[in-house]
Design brief:
The complex is a heterodimer of chains A (239) and B (289). Chain A has 239 residues and is mainly α. Helices cover 84% and strands 0% of the residues of chain A. Chain A is built from 10 helices and no strands. The two termini of chain A are 30 Å apart. The relative contact order of chain A is 0.14. Chain B folds into 2 domains: 4-221, P-loop containing nucleotide triphosphate hydrolases (Rossmann fold), CATH 3.40.50; 226-270. Chain B contains 10 helices and 13 strands. Chain B has helices spanning 46-53, 78-81, 97-105, 115-120, 136-148, 166-181, 193-199, 217-224, 253-261, 274-282; strands spanning 4-14, 21-31, 35-39, 61-66, 69-70, 82-85, 154-158, 185-189, 202-207, 210-215, 228-235, 238-245, 264-269. In chain B, the strands form 3 sheets. Chain B has a 6-stranded mixed sheet, sandwiched between helices. The longest helix of chain B has 16 residues, at 166-181. Classes of the chains: A mainly alpha (239), B alpha/beta (289). At the A-B interface, helix 1, helix 3 and helix 4 of A face helix 2 and helix 3 of B.
């Protein structure tokens, strides 16, 4: 097995040991339970929202928590003195975050398709979820590397959610509109929401979805190259 | 002639964020099979030097050659050659000691059967316990095992016995000695002068980013010591002491008389300790924190 494969295997083992995979599965089960409680007639409208929350917010929270543990344990630095490149180390963590997001998405989407008659374009949903998870993992990374303690990390993630995620959720359930439609263009969460909605057959958002895909791809690359990667090295060395 | 492992010339480094010049003009060589000590107070530049030699810091001035080749030309394969023992514990606390070692071991092409080493450092019975349940001393010992996982040729150690009881410190020092006997090279950062005296072939005193002195512990002691002998002896029911110059002491009648008299209680040469040399050279007290 090549080194990236070993890193991935080790990362999954670590995430399981730290109960991160289990917590993610537990949250998915909660989403499914809520869907059953909502009832067959209404559940279909909530499935895209739950997938959005899981893939964006949970990804940020889980990757942030995972990295925070590593910072506390000084393990970033010791990985830096192994014959594995730093991009491979970061990539292994992002791929594992994407896996966790996909695991939840597939479970919720399959339940939606078979139990709640939701119409889902899986060929769009899966690549979109991968992109959304990558973008939000990168944002989660960035947040957790700029905070001093766990409380600050939670506060920063909550702040992010208030600024970016909640307006998109409010927009999705028609609580807000008008000027927000324009303002939300800069929100990664809104781009994510558009992409998920598109996968669930929403009409009239094709162009906006393409803009969302380009925006999240661009944002992920820029944040990774110019912020996350140098900050990761700086954080690891400072340990 | 021994192979030069590291050749450091005019090394300089400034931390970009705060503009602090951590290293100014540092030059030294480390030969194969040598234990080279980097000594200095906190913030002197020891850690920065180690971080450059382990390729963690790359934007440095000057030249570092590893085995004759510019360090900048090495890739990640460089880490197959070296082992790094950090001062602070660097393990996943929710993994057992064995799981931690397996995690890192698989990243190297060459590695050792670490179980005998775990036994040797006294962690054999605890190898399946979570590292989070380990005491500080146990984590320090596990750090040492981690550093040797890839059977390195060069070992970087930062305060390897800090926080260990004398018996466990002895085990670590014996293992460092055995590593050196097998031809390994060690670069040791410490403020524990006892470790320096026991382990180091040569030491560099570094302060304010500049190397003040490089020599063997023995030569340093001779250079900074006083060439004198202090004798405590008993006379007329009282303990007296007198200092004699070391030169020509065999012909000093007063000294010989005290010896013949049989009233000598203690004799001390003017050899100084490395603690005193540290303070003299660096101008700072040793921190025992």
């Amino acid at each position: 097995m090549n080194k990236f494969g070993i890193l991935m295997q080790d990362e999954f083992k670590r995430l399981a040991k730290y109960n991160i995979i289990q917590v993610s599965l537990g949250v998915t089960v909660l989403w499914l339970a809520v869907l059953f409680l909502i009832g067959r007639n209404e559940a279909g409208a909530f499935i895209p929202l739950f997938i959005f929350m899981d893939v964006s917010m949970m990804t940020m929270l889980l990757i942030g928590a995972g990295l925070f543990y590593e910072r506390q344990e000084n393990t970033l630095k010791t990985l830096m003195v192994t014959p594995v490149s730093t991009p491979a180390i970061i990539a292994s963590k992002i791929v594992s975050a994407v896996y966790i997001a996909l695991q939840s998405t597939v479970l919720i989407a399959l339940a939606g398709h078979f139990l709640f008659d939701a119409s889902i374009n899986f060929f769009a949903l899966i690549p979109f979820v991968i992109l959304i998870a990558v973008a939000h993992a990168v944002i989660g990374y960035l947040v957790s590397m700029h905070v001093r303690d766990f409380t600050s990390m939670i506060a920063m993630l909550m702040l992010y959610m208030f600024i970016f995620a909640f307006p998109s959720i409010f927009y999705a359930i028609d609580m807000i509109g008008g000027v927000w439609e324009t303002l939300l263009i800069v929100s990664p969460s809104h781009a994510a929401m558009l992409m998920i909605d598109f996968s669930f057959g929403a009409e009239g958002i094709g162009t906006l979805t393409i803009i969302g895909v380009v925006y999240l791809s661009f944002l992920s690359i820029v944040l990774m190259r110019f912020f996350v990667y140098p900050k990761y090295i700086e954080t690891a060395i400072k340990e | 002639m021994a192979e030069t492992i590291f050749e450091v010339k005019n090394l300089a480094f400034t931390y970009p964020k705060n503009g602090v010049q951590a290293l100014k003009d540092v030059s030294f060589r480390v030969e194969k099979g040598e234990v080279f000590g980097l000594l200095g107070p906190s913030g002197a530049g020891k850690s920065t030097t180690q971080k450059i030699l382990t390729r963690l810091l790359k934007d440095y001035g000057g030249l570092v050659r590893y085995r004759g080749k510019n360090l900048r030309e090495y890739g990640d394969g460089f880490y197959e050659d070296i082992g790094v023992g950090f001062e602070l514990p660097v393990h996943f606390s929710k993994l057992t000691a064995v799981e931690n070692m397996d995690f890192f071991k698989r990243l190297y092409q060459k590695n050792i059967d670490y179980s005998s080493l775990m036994e040797r450092v006294g962690l054999g019975e605890d190898k399946n316990r979570l590292v989070g349940e380990f005491s500080k001393g146990m984590k320090v010992r596990l750090n040492f095992v981690r550093a040797l996982l890839n059977d390195p040729e060069v070992l970087f150690l930062d305060e390897p016995t800090n926080g260990l009881d004398p018996a466990n410190a002895r085990i670590i020092k014996d293992l460092v000695w055995e590593f050196k006997e097998r031809g390994g090279t060690v670069i040791l950062s410490t403020h524990l002068m006892n470790d320096v005296e026991e382990l180091c072939d040569r030491v560099a005193f570094i302060t304010q980013g500049v190397i003040r002195e490089i020599s063997t512990p023995r030569e340093l002691k001779i250079k900074h010591g006083r060439r004198e002998v202090r004798v405590e002896y008993h006379e007329n029911g009282r303990t007296k002491d007198k200092v004699f110059p070391l030169d020509g002491i065999g012909d000093n009648p007063e000294f010989l008389e005290i010896l013949k008299d049989g009233s000598v209680e203690t004799i001390h040469s003017g050899e100084t300790s490395l603690d005193e040399i540290f303070i003299k050279v660096t101008g700072e007290e040793i921190s025992h924190e």
